[in-house]
From TrEMBL:
Bilayer-crossing regions: 130-151
Keyword match Membrane: yes
Keyword Transmembrane helix recorded: yes
UniProt name for this protein: DUF2207 domain-containing protein
Organism of derivation: Cellulomonas dongxiuzhuiae
Swiss-Prot/TrEMBL keywords: Membrane, Transmembrane, Transmembrane helix
């Protein structure tokens, strides 16, 4: 992972709560079947509430083993598990990575819970691949257009700042969009980035651009 991971804290043994329909855009839940050192099969689950913890507002990943809380860590997180680690990282719109990285360096993505937003998006990809591809292409196109139209306007605003203007000079953008169009562009960008996050697709240029809340 590119960023330093947080310290893993032990879990409290609580039971994993079922996924609710109203949590489609606020919660990610993924599972992985692994065999423990004793040879017993276990289900490892990672639960992420994107709105953050009720106590401090910090987004965390919670690791469960057979539905019992095993560990927790702030994002990005790396949990030691049998034969490797589970790495979890978030973007401004969901998860960008949730993989089991083996001791040999191999990586495989965890399986989304069928009831989750990621699970429903994966099911759409399996049952309607043509529609799924169209949505994916549309999302990428929206983000590209937003980037091309948004960057000149942002650069113009930056060069209006007096210290910047004195150093590099003021620059006038060739792109000038009405406020209503810019608002619609932001809404479309959020929708497109959310769709990509449901597929765990992330590009620092497209998804971490000027209209994104991501770093």
């Amino acid at each position: 992972m590119t960023r330093r991971t947080a310290t893993v804290q032990p879990g409290d043994g609580r039971t994993l709560t079922p996924y609710r329909p109203w949590q489609l855009l606020t919660r990610s839940l993924f599972h992985l079947q692994l065999t423990d050192p004793a040879g017993a099969p276990r289900t490892w689950s990672v639960d992420v509430r994107h709105g953050g913890d009720d106590a401090d507002g910090e987004a965390r990943a919670d690791l469960y083993v057979d539905s019992l809380h095993h560990a927790t860590a702030k994002l990005p997180a790396a949990f030691p598990v049998p034969d490797g680690t589970i790495e979890v990282a978030a973007s401004g719109y969901g998860l960008r990575r949730i993989h089991h990285v083996g001791a040999d360096g191999s990586a495989r993505q965890l399986v989304p819970d069928p009831a989750s937003g990621e699970g429903r998006r994966a099911r759409l990809d399996r049952t309607h691949p043509a529609l799924s591809r169209s949505l994916a292409l549309a999302s990428a196109a929206v983000l590209l257009v937003a980037l091309l139209l948004g960057v000149p306007q942002v650069v113009e605003q930056l060069t209006q700042i007096p210290p910047v203007a004195q150093t590099v000079g003021a620059w006038v953008s060739p792109v000038r969009l009405p406020d209503e169009v810019n608002i619609a562009l932001v809404v479309a960008t959020i929708a497109a980035s959310t769709e990509r996050a449901l597929r765990l697709r992330y590009s620092r240029i497209l998804d971490g651009g000027f209209f994104s809340g991501d770093e």
